[in-house]
Amino acid sequence: MARSVYVTGIDRGDGRQVVELGVMELLTRQVDRVGVFRPLVHDGPDRLYELLRARYRLSQSPASVY
């Protein structure tokens, strides 16, 4: 099994976040631990990361995601 999965998109509003949620849902049912990496940083809170962190109980600190 692959040790990592990278989801990327072409533009805002391309449905990537729905895919990310679906992939996380599948992975959390099959593996013990999952993590998130967000290579681009925007000003303000990262709402997707906060959703993933709350939904999947990620132990990563927000600073380690970027």
TrEMBL record:
Q: What is this protein called?
A: Uncharacterized protein
Organism from which the protein derives: Streptomyces sp. SID7499
